[in-house]
UniProtKB/TrEMBL annotation:
It is found in: Mitochondrion. GO terms for biological process: L-arginine biosynthetic process. Keywords: Amino-acid biosynthesis, Aminotransferase, Pyridoxal phosphate, Transferase. It holds the Pfam family Aminotran_3. One of its GO terms (cellular component) is mitochondrial matrix. Belongs to the class-III pyridoxal-phosphate-dependent aminotransferase family. InterPro entries: AcOrn/SuccOrn_fam, Aminotrans_3, Aminotrans_3_PPA_site, Class-III_PLP-dep_AT, PyrdxlP-dep_Trfase, PyrdxlP-dep_Trfase_major, PyrdxlP-dep_Trfase_small. This is acetylornithine transaminase. NCBIfam families: argD (TIGR00707), PRK01278.1 (NF002325).
Length: 457
C-alpha cells in the first residue's frame, strides 16, 4: 500500500517529460530519473551467467535462493559479475569483508603463507595461532572491552565459535555443580547464533529449528531488552546466557545498556557465565573494537565470540574466555582439525591489527553519520515506507513497512547490493573502509530504487 501511495508523489519526477523543466528542479528531476534506470538488469537465461547457473545449480544442495548474477571479482567496496558489470557492495559478504574485497596486504599474506605453511594440525605449535590469540586478548583489553580476557580457542566459523562457548559453559556448570543441575543455557527471541545443533538450539527461530527438531535439551528463551523478566529467566540452574549486543540477523536490534548491565549482574548473582556473541557486531563494526567496549566493566562477558570480519573472507572463528572459564577446560575437552591453522591465523593477525586501529574506528563513526543523514532524508521522502532507522556505526537497518525484496532487486539492477534482516528490515553492513562518495552513490541508487519500486506497484 505504502509503495503505491507514495508513488503518486514521486511519479512526476520519474518520467522523461521532466526534461522540460528548468533550473535546480530540473537537475533534481533528471537525477531522479537517471537513478531509476536499469543499469544492471539481472542476467538473462541465455547470458554467460545464466548458462553457468543452469549447469552448476543442479549439483548444489539448495540451501540458498540466489539472484542471477555470478560474482567473479572484488576490490574494495565493489564486486564484478561475469558480465563484467561493477556493483557497489553494501553487504560485504554479510559483515565479513570489513577491509573491503581483496585488500592488497591480505592477498599478499595469503600468497606468502601458502608457500610457507598452511596446516600442520593442532598436535604441534606454529608461530601464528598463539600470536593471534595474544593479539586478540591484548587488543580486547586495550579497547576497553572484556577486561579479564585471558585465552582464546580458534576455530573456523561463527557457529563453531559459539558451539565452543556453549560447550565450555556446560563444562563450567558441571564443575561448579557436579550434580548436573547447572546446565541451562539462556538465549533471546530473534537471536541468531548459528546452524550447528548447539548454536541452533540457542537460535529460537522456528524456520531454522523446526525441520531439525528435537533441539539440544536445556535451552531457554527470554525476551530481548526485557529487564523485568531477567530474574525468572536466569536462575541457579543457568550455566550461561548467550546474547548479541546488537542482533544482526534479527533485524539490527541493539540491546540497551541497562539490559546488558542487569543481565550481567544477574549472571554474577547466580554464578552463570555471560557470553557475548559479537560475530556480526564486533571487530570495529560499531566504531569501537567490540560493540561492548563502550559498556561499564561490570557488564563485560566471560565468553566472547567472533568470526566473520576476523578473516575478512577467509574462514576463521574465535572464542575468547577469561581465566574462570579457561581454568575448567582440560586437554581433550574440545578440538578441531583445521581451527588455528597458520594461514588463517596469520591473516587474522593482520586483520585484527588493522581493525583495532582507533583511526579506522573513528572513520566508521564518521561514515555512519553520512549514512544516517541520508537515511533521514529518505525517511522524510518515503514516510509510509521507512518506519525506523536503527543500529550503530556501520551495522545499520531501515525498518520498512513492507517486504524489502522488491527494493533489493531494484537496487541490484541499478548496481547496488543490499540485504535484509529480521522482519522487513533493510540491512547495511558495508566495508568499514567505504568512502563517503561511495556512501553517497549508494544512497542515490537506493533512492532511485525506492522510486522505481513504487512506480511498478
Ligand atoms: C551473531 C551471529 N552469530 C553466529 C553466526 C553464525 O556464523 P557462521 O555463519 O560463520 O557459522 C552469525 C552469522 O550470521 C551471526 O550473525
Amino acid at each position: 500500500m505504502a509503495f503505491r501511495t507514495a508513488l503518486r508523489r514521486v511519479a512526476a519526477v520519474n518520467v522523461p517529460a521532466t526534461r522540460g523543466l528548468a533550473g535546480a528542479g530540473a537537475a533534481a528531476a533528471r537525477r531522479a530519473y537517471a537513478t531509476t534506470q536499469l543499469t544492471h538488469p539481472d542476467p538473462t537465461e541465455d547470458s554467460a551467467s545464466g548458462k553457468m547457473v543452469r549447469e552448476h545449480a543442479p549439483y548444489m544442495v539448495t540451501t540458498y535462493s540466489r539472484p542471477p548474477p555470478v560474482f567473479v571479482k572484488g576490490k574494495g567496496s565493489y564486486l564484478w559479475d561475469l558480465e563484467d558489470r561493477k556493483y557497489l557492495d553494501f553487504t560485504s559478504g554479510i559483515a565479513v569483508n570489513s577491509l573491503g574485497h581483496c585488500d592488497e596486504e591480505f592477498s599478499k599474506i595469503i600468497a606468502e603463507q601458502a608457500q610457507e605453511l598452511v596446516h600442520a594440525s593442532n598436535l604441534y605449535y606454529n608461530p601464528w595461532t598463539g600470536a593471534l590469540s595474544k593479539l586478540l586478548v591484548e587488543s580486547t583489553k586495550a579497547s576497553g572491552g572484556m577486561h579479564d580476557a585471558s585465552s582464546v580457542f580458534i576455530c573456523n566459523s561463527g557457529s563453531e565459535a559459539n558451539e565452543a562457548g556453549i560447550k565450555f559453559a556446560r563444562k563450567v556448570g558441571k564443575v561448579l555443580d557436579p550434580s548436573g543441575n547447572k546446565v541451562e543455557i539462556v538465549s533471546f527471541q530473534n537471536a541468531f547464533h548459528g546452524r550447528t545443533m548447539g548454536s541452533l538450539s540457542a537460535t529460537p527461530n522456528p524456520k531454522y529449528q523446526a525441520p531439525f527438531a528435537p533441539m539440544v535439551p536445556g535451552f531457554k528463551v527470554g525476551t530481548y531488552n526485557d529487564i523485568a523478566s531477567i530474574d525468572s529467566l536466569v536462575t541457579e540452574k543457568t550455566c550461561s546466557v548467550i546474547v548479541e549486543p546488537i542482533q544482526g540477523e534479527g533485524g539490527v536490534m541493539p540491546a540497551t545498556e541497562e539490559f546488558l548491565v542487569a543481565l550481567a549482574k544477574r549472571c554474577r548473582d547466580v554464578g552463570a557465565l555471560l557470553h557475548y556473541d559479537e560475530i556480526q557486531c564486533g571487530m570495529a563494526r560499531t566504531g569501537t573494537f567490540w560493540a561492548h567496549s563502550s559498556l561499564p566493566k561490570e557488564a563485560h562477558p566471560d565468553i566472547l565470540t567472533t568470526a566473520k570480519a576476523l578473516g575478512n573472507g577467509f574462514p576463521i572463528g574465535a572464542t575468547i574466555v577469561n581465566e574462570h572459564v579457561a581454568s575448567k577446560i582440560k586437554v581433550g575437552d574440545h578440538g578441531t582439525t583445521f581451527g588455528g591453522n597458520p594461514l588463517a591465523c596469520r591473516l587474522a593477525h593482520y586483520i585484527v591489527g588493522r581493525l583495532a586501529d582507533g583511526k579506522l574506528q573513528e572513520g566508521v563513526k564518521a561514515k555512519s553519520e553520512v549514512f544516517l543523514q541520508g537515511f533521514e532524508k529518505l525517511r522524510a521522502k518515503f514516510p509510509e515506507l521507512i518506519k525506523e532507522v536503527r543500529g550503530k556505526g556501520l551495522i545499520l537497518g531501515l525498518q520498512l513497512s513492507e517486504d524489502p525484496t522488491p527494493v533489493i532487486k531494484a537496487a541490484r539492477e541499478r548496481g547496488l547490493l543490499v540485504i535484509t534482516a529480521g522482519t522487513n528490515t533493510l540491512r547495511f553492513v558495508p566495508s568499514l573502509l567505504v568512502s563517503e562518495q561511495e556512501i553517497e552513490e549508494g544512497l542515490r541508487i537506493l533512492e532511485g530504487s525506492f522510486e522505481a519500486v513504487m512506480v511498478k506497484a
